[in-house]
Structures are given as C-alpha cells and as structure tokens.
Task: inverse folding
C-alpha cells in the first residue's frame, strides 16, 4: 500500500548570525505578518535584523506560529560566494543577507542554498576563508 506524506511543506527562512546580530531576508505577501515584523525591518538593506537573542527568539516564534520554518544558521560559509565586481550581480544583491567588497570582488552571503546554486550558475565561486 502506498504511503502519502500529508505534512504540509513549511517555507524555510534561514536566520543568520553575523557579527553578533541575527538577519534574514524574505518577502512576505501577508501584510499583517509584515506589520508585526516591521520593527525589525531594515528598509535600506531590504532585510530583517534582530539585535539580541531575545528578539531573534520572539521573531522565530512569530514565524513558526504563522506556518514558516525559521532555521538558525551559525556558520555562513556554505552560503558565502564571491563574484567579480565588474559582473552583473543585481540579482545576487537582492537575494543575499549580507554583501561587502573585497579587493576586485563582491562577497555575498546568500539567503538560501537555492540562491547559492543560482549564484554559482551566474559565475560566482564559493568564498574560501
């Protein structure tokens, strides 16, 4: 007899610990949820920032209750790519949690593994520490 997986797939949201704060990037099509999370939204960087573990826990609880799967990422290395600063990287910027220049390259911490793969397909390489 075939078995059926009836558990609903919850959207994954990676929350990255970077420089003592917590960040994630996600587009919410639920205006009420966005309003609830708006105090943590950094408009200029199009991302959410929680300065403390307490704020992070509060946001993770809200996301969980709204049907998301918030996941803490302590090691950002598997999500970190670099590309020439002369390449077209607008899509990478839109889908990264953090970015910074490094000599003749731009380093990006991508929001999820799907965007790591997309970045590699666009000519980026994995960043070696």
Result:
């Amino acid at each position: 007899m075939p078995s059926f997986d009836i558990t609903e797939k919850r959207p994954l949201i990676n929350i990255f610990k970077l420089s003592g704060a917590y960040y994630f990037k996600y587009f919410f099509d639920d205006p009420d949820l966005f309003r609830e999370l708006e105090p943590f939204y950094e408009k200029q960087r199009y991302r959410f920032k929680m300065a403390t573990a307490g704020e992070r826990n509060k946001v993770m609880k809200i996301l969980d209750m709204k049907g998301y799967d918030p996941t803490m990422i302590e090691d950002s290395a598997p999500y970190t790519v670099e590309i020439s600063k002369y390449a077209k990287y607008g899509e990478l910027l839109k889908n990264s949690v953090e970015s910074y220049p490094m000599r003749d390259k731009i380093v990006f911490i991508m929001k999820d593994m799907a965007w790591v793969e997309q970045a590699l397909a666009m000519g980026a390489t994995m960043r070696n520490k």
Residues 12-73 form a domain with the MutS, DNA mismatch repair protein, domain I fold (CATH 3.40.1170). The beta strands are 12-18, 21-24, 41-42, 47-50, 69-73, 80-84, 96-102, 105-110, 125-126. The helical segments are 31-37, 53-65, 90-94, 113-121.
